[in-house]
Design goal:
188 residues; 3 helices
Length: 188
């Protein structure tokens, strides 16, 4: 009987610990407020999920003083894209991304690889899931986010991905050699 009570106590403790992580609701219309760092300068930017279906995703973007626009991912990039779009955005345009490119949302193939192998291939690098230190825990409004923390094979680039099969969002990238470092600040 003591073993059963002990087992139930452990289960309740583990369940309450797992529930302490914040998992923002992501759906069409969600706005993600980020800080971007480019060439040592930090500025705010907003990404919005303007359209979100299994075969078509439109991510809107806006940067005060620069402009706004969007990126479109179609079936192929949603299914198997493995390269980020890191080019300078073009204000006033909605750009179709190449079949192997994604923006803010990781592809289904990447998500499946993350689940199966605890790693992803992204931008011609391999990133492996690591246990984050307390300083590496991603927080939004003081709440620890339910996210995967990954490091590149040389340890110089770090990525945080929302633990959400339907919308595995890029929440943070640090040490990005191809473009801006990004950090999510809030989700609306």
């Amino acid at each position: 009987m003591k073993k059963i009570i002990f087992g139930l106590s452990l289960f309740v403790a583990a369940s309450s610990f797992a529930q302490d992580k914040y998992s923002p609701a992501i759906k069409q219309g969600t706005k993600l407020n980020f800080s971007a760092v480019v060439n040592g300068q930090t500025f705010p930017c907003v990404f919005s999920l303007d359209s979100l279906t299994a075969t078509y995703v439109k991510v809107g973007w806006s940067v005060d003083g620069f402009g706004s626009g969007g990126w479109v991912m179609k079936s192929k990039s949603i299914e198997s894209g493995n390269r980020g779009f890191w080019g300078q955005p073009n204000p006033g345009t909605v750009e179709d991304l190449a079949d192997d490119q994604v923006a803010i949302i990781f592809s289904k193939a990447q998500w499946d690889m993350l689940q199966k192998d605890k790693k992803i291939n992204f931008d011609q690098q391999t990133y492996t899931v690591k246990t984050p230190t307390d300083q590496q825990q991603l927080k939004i409004s003081g709440k620890t986010v339910d996210a995967y923390y990954l490091e590149s094979s040389n340890g110089s680039t770090h990525i945080w991905i929302l633990n959400n099969a339907a919308t595995p969002l890029l929440l943070k990238i640090e040490g990005n050699t191809l473009g801006a470092d990004l950090t999510v600040n809030s989700v609306e």
